[in-house]
Write a structure and sequence with these properties.
The protein is α+β, with helices and mostly antiparallel strands and 166 residues long. The chain has two domains: 60 residues, no CATH class; 89 residues, no CATH class. Strands 1, 2, 3, 4, 5 and 6 form a six-stranded antiparallel beta sheet that branches. The longest helix is centred in the first third of the chain and has 26 residues. The protein starts with a helix and ends with a helix.
């Protein structure tokens, strides 16, 4: 009951535009979103894999082109086909980590694409959700990435506690 009362107080502060209330709700939002992402990434690391045919992979513009090349945003993309239990699927997701970047940092996307596991027979490894094989990725999240996501989830709460509760 005390936590509900505290949340109510923080809500009133946030409505009033007070930094403490805004920080509290931003920290809660970040915690929920990043914790969900952490759990999802952990679950995808357990997905089985199959061989697939990579049709296309590269870096594309995200949205429209801007007047200044440095302001244009980019995202990695891929198209691949794979078979699970005699059913054919076409996937487009590269990774659970969706990275959108500008022209100056699009090398990050090329680095991400280099993580696609290419097999000696010319195929690629495709990771798919066992209960819904049409959901797939070419790259699974790393333990470091999962740790980063989890740290991102709890860091704002820790900073809030240090600033306002000690």
């Amino acid at each position: 009951m005390e936590f509900i009362h505290y949340c109510s107080e923080m809500w009133q502060l946030a409505i009033a535009g007070e930094p403490q209330g805004i920080f509290f709700w931003a920290a809660i939002y970040t915690f929920v979103v990043c914790l969900y992402s952490t759990i999802f990434q952990c679950l995808t690391r357990r997905w089985p894999s199959t061989q697939g045919q990579l049709i296309d992979a590269g870096v594309n513009t995200f949205g429209g082109r801007n007047v200044y090349r440095a302001d244009t945003e980019y995202i990695s993309k891929a198209v691949y086909r794979y078979t699970v239990s005699d059913n054919d699927y076409e996937g487009k997701r590269v990774s659970p980590w969706v990275i959108v970047t500008n022209h100056n940092a699009k090398g990050i996307l090329n680095k991400q694409l280099s993580g696609i596991q290419r097999l000696p027979n010319g195929k690629v490894r495709v990771f798919y959700k066992p209960s819904n094989p049409k959901k797939s990725f070419l790259i699974l999240p790393s333990k470091i990435g999962i740790g980063f996501t989890f740290a991102t989830s709890v860091l704002p709460l820790i900073l809030f506690y240090v600033k306002y509760c000690t």
